[in-house]
Amino acid sequence: MDFTKLHGTGNDFIVLDARGLDRDWSALSREMCDRHFGIGADGLILAAPSERAGVRMRIFNSDGSEAEMSGNGMRCLVKFVVDGGIARTAGDELDVETGAGVLRVRVTAGRGLVTSVRESMGRPRLDPREIPVAIEAPPPVLEFPLEVDGRSVPVTLVSMGNPHAVHVQREPVAGYPLAQLGPLVEHHARFPNRTNFEVVRMIDRNHAEMRVWERGVGETLSCGSGASATMVATRLLGLAGDSLELGVPGGVLQLEWDGVGEVILSGPVAEVFRGSWPD
After folding, report:
1. Are 116 and 266 in contact (CB under 8 A)?
2. Distance of alpha carbon 125 from alpha carbon 131, whole angstroms
3. Do residues 186 and 107 share a domain?
4. Is 191 in the same domain as 237?
5. What is the rounded distance in angstroms from the CA atom of residue 28 to the CA atom of residue 18?
C-alpha cells in the first residue's frame, strides 16, 4: 500500500489514496502512526471519493479514533490529491468534503506543486449543545471556569466541526504544564466527545502564540482547527481584530474572521517522503 507523508507547520500525516480500498482504518492508523514501530505521524488521512466535492477527507488520529476535521490535515490532503492528479482544481480552487461539511480551499503552487493552501474552516459553532459541552448557558461560552486538578482554568468554548477549549493567559505558553493538564481537559466530564485544548498568549491584537493538546493525539506542533478556534475565541473576548498571525511550535499560521462568517486559515504544506506499507 503506497503512502505519502506530509506536514503542515509540523503537524504530520500519512496520506493514502483510499479509492476502492476497504481496511480496518482505525487499527491501521494506530500501526502506521506509531513513532517507534511504524512510520510515525499525528494521524492517517484517506483520500476518498465524494459525490458532493472534488474529494472526501477521512481522518483518523494516532490513537485510532476518527476525527471530524483537521485544518493542517486538509492542506496535506489537498497537496496530495492535486499534486497526484487525484482531484483537479477549478482555477486554483477545490471543494473538499469533511466531517464538518464541504469546505473550499485555494491553492498556491510553485514549479507545478502545491506549496500553501488558503482554506475555509467553516462557521464556528458556539452553542454548548453543538460543541458539545455539558453546560447550561447561552452562547457564546466565554472563559468558563473549568475545574481541573484542583485549579480553575478559564476556557472559551468553540466548535470548528470538532470541540475546542481555548485558554488565554498572560504568560508565555512555553511554560504551561500542558502534558499534565492537557489529558485532564481532554477527558473532562464536561466534554462528552472529549475536546482539544489550546493555550494562548496574545502578543498584540494581531499576533499571538499557541500550544495545543489534540484530542486522540496529545501535544502536537500545530493544529489548524485549534488555530481557527483561537481566532474565534480571542476575537470574541475582544483581544483580536479580524486577522491574527499565530505562532505555533511548528511555524506560523494566518487566520481571518469577521465575527460572522467562515474562518479562513492559511498556511504552508510540504511533502516529507513516500513509501510502501506492507499490506
Report:
1. yes
2. 7
3. no
4. yes
5. 12
User: CA 169, CA 148: separation in Å to the nearest integer?
Assistant: 16
Q: Is residue 223 part of a domain?
A: yes
224 CB burial (10 A radius; 0-12, 13-18, 19+): buried
Q: What is the pLDDT of residue 234?
A: 98
Calpha distance 166→144 (Å, rounded): 10
Q: HSE (CB half, 13 Å, CA atoms) of 111?
A: 0
Sign of CA dihedral 267, 271, 277, 279: positive
**Residue-number span of the structural domain to which 61 is assigned:** 2-122+267-276
- CA 182/CA 198 separation, integer angstroms: 9
| Residues 6 and 118 occupy one common structural domain | yes
Residues 201 and 94 grouped into a single domain: no
Contact in structure between 154 and 143 (CB atoms under 8 Å) = yes
Provide the CATH number for the domain around residue 222: 3.10.310.10
Same-domain status, 101 and 202: no
Please tell me whether residues 233 and 253 are part of one structural domain: yes
C-alpha cell at 165: 477549549
Task: Check residue 279 and give its pLDDT.
Answer: 81
How, if at all, do strands 207-214 and 243-248 pair? parallel
Q: How many domains does the chain have?
A: 2
What per-residue confidence (pLDDT) applies to 40? 98
Low-confidence ranges of the chain (pLDDT < 50): none
- Residue 130 grid coordinates: 453543538
